[in-house]
């Protein structure tokens, strides 16, 4: 994969993940839909879109993926929905991406990756900027909600790492979404929700599943094989920033000096991390 194509696909993936955060945040926080219904509709709509795309591409379909990867996908989607019932958007994003980063970098280090001094500085700068953006003015999160969101981040990290080993990412992604449907159905039946689901809530869930989740994960699977686990983890730190920008553009959130400085720290840290990785490769 050429550097330009890798950059474009990675940017598109991060934008999809940011859009997913906005859709989930609005649907759940405003009470348009309950978490288990949102999760079910999100997974089913993602499965339908990915299945249709595969039929157009291959004229046939073989169920790919694995039940373990599907369980990780479902675990992320369900935990993400339930955590946002009690957590604020900023706290949830911080906990989610912090857990993803720790999972993927931890795996990379366990596999033998070593971080240079510049990479460590970049990681500290990016993490510090994200914490500075998210924490001020946010109350201490409820323990249960925080633990649920951390588990969502771990599931996302595990799912992303498993995607690095697949030879047909689109087939694997569609298969994992389809395999995740029974998990979502069982959870929905066990929850027995009495909350009324609005048409707007359904629309948010469909958009989250079909566009931001289904297509987003297909793109993520496509770029992951070209990204070391530690670099992939750092790039994902840009998603809360992109989500915040989307909130300002579409949800009329205020632009502050603190946000601007924190954005520079996060994106600058990510750039330093990636550039130092390239320099270390050239030095070899």
TrEMBL record:
SUPFAM superfamilies: Multidrug resistance efflux transporter EmrE. Pfam families: EamA (PF00892). Residues 144-274 form the EamA domain. The keyword Nucleus does not apply. It is a multi-pass membrane protein. Its main location: membrane. Keywords: Membrane, Transmembrane, Transmembrane helix. The chain crosses the membrane at residues 39-56, 68-87, 93-110, 117-135, 141-159, 171-190, 202-220, 232-251, 257-275. It is found in: Membrane. This is DMT family transporter. It comes from Zhongshania guokunii. The lineage of its organism: Bacteria, Pseudomonadati, Pseudomonadota, Gammaproteobacteria, Cellvibrionales.
